[in-house]
């Protein structure tokens, strides 16, 4: 095995942030359809790229940051979203125009939402809704974004990594990096390490203790924790690989977002692929050759991450997520909060009431949430390393909690569909109600 939030009587009533956003979004109407999913709710990227950084701005407005919004802040959050309605409608209209220009220019690189959402919001603020010259403006903006991508494109990465002479050099570099990687480190004092991690996790929701976090980094706690992934089956149990032992990656030459393997099984190409789909991300990356060499070396490091601060983040996430495993106990306040968030999801309750068949079904997906959490956390911190963005002490809880929110969003619709196919039959033979309140 890969090694409930307390409430006081004075706690004010709260409302789920996602529910508040969905309610106001529905009020704003059909003009927001280009930014919405099939259920009429904001896309995950709409929240990530538009609502959070540009409208709600939780860094400046921490009252809007939590998954549960305090009762006294509910009306203000609603008012903030409603006030942004006209600009969001104009953003949606510009996004439609930019996608049309993209097709005209036969551009296939990158995800249009990643590339254009924030630029469309900017256009909506400076120009308002698309006017008579919208076609010209859209073509110019799309061409400018393509040009700004420079050498950091998926096509350029593929060409660079597959050129025969360079590929031979990279394979030799990869072999040397893995030869030098310590096959085994002195076994850490697990009790002391766990206590140190729990000490930080106990206060992280209110703001991590910077001194304690710095001490973990200085003491190499992240690398020490990674040593326990080396025995056969250890990384497999954490969902980070499908193999019994961690093996060096291939260079690779193709990738698909829909079918990426677990983190430790990804080729060098697959590891860099996701970061190349956003113009915003590429702006903060080094040149292509340096980026590839850095990634090759990174694969041989503990947690397959280059920075000790990032490894400590993984160690903290691994420890906190123990509470998400079947029968897992929360060793810290952070673990209790994560477990409480997960277990109060209605689809989780329904899935756990189903009998476990040979194929696992919804109950198995719910039972493996910890593995999904650790995979998603690795992807997040790996992306930060690519962009040179350290995890600040003040951002640590937002990251740990945000990863679980993301996993919940991904699993909710899929598990609900599996539950519907299962017919809602629970272990005692009673049909579970289909409603979720």
Number of strands: 2
Q: Name the strands of the widest sheet in spatial order.
A: 1-2
Can you write the helix and strand succession as a string? EHHEHHHHHHHHHHHHHHHHHHH
Unreliably modeled segments? 4-11, 424-437
| Ends distance | 34 Å
Oligomerization status of the protein chains: single chain
Class by SSE composition: mainly alpha
What about the largest sheet? 2 strands, antiparallel
Record keyword descriptors for this entry:
437 residues, mainly alpha, 2 domains, globular, 1% strand
Question: Concise description?
Answer:
This protein has 437 residues and is mainly alpha-helical.
Describe the structure.
The chain is built from 21 helices and 2 strands. It is mostly helical. It has 2 domains: 135 residues, no CATH class; 268 residues, no CATH class. The chain has a two-stranded antiparallel ribbon with strand order 1-2. It is globular, with a radius of gyration of 23 Å.
Secondary structure topology:
Elements (H helix, E strand, L loop, with lengths): L13 E3 H12 L15 H13 L11 E3 H13 L1 H20 L7 H16 L6 H15 L5 H9 L1 H17 L9 H12 L8 H9 L2 H6 L7 H4 L30 H6 L5 H4 L5 H11 L9 H13 L12 H11 L2 H8 L7 H7 L1 H19 L8 H27 L15
Antiparallel strand pairs: 1-2
Helix pairs in contact: 1-3, 2-5, 4-5, 4-6, 9-16, 10-16, 16-20, 17-21, 18-19, 18-21, 19-21, 20-21
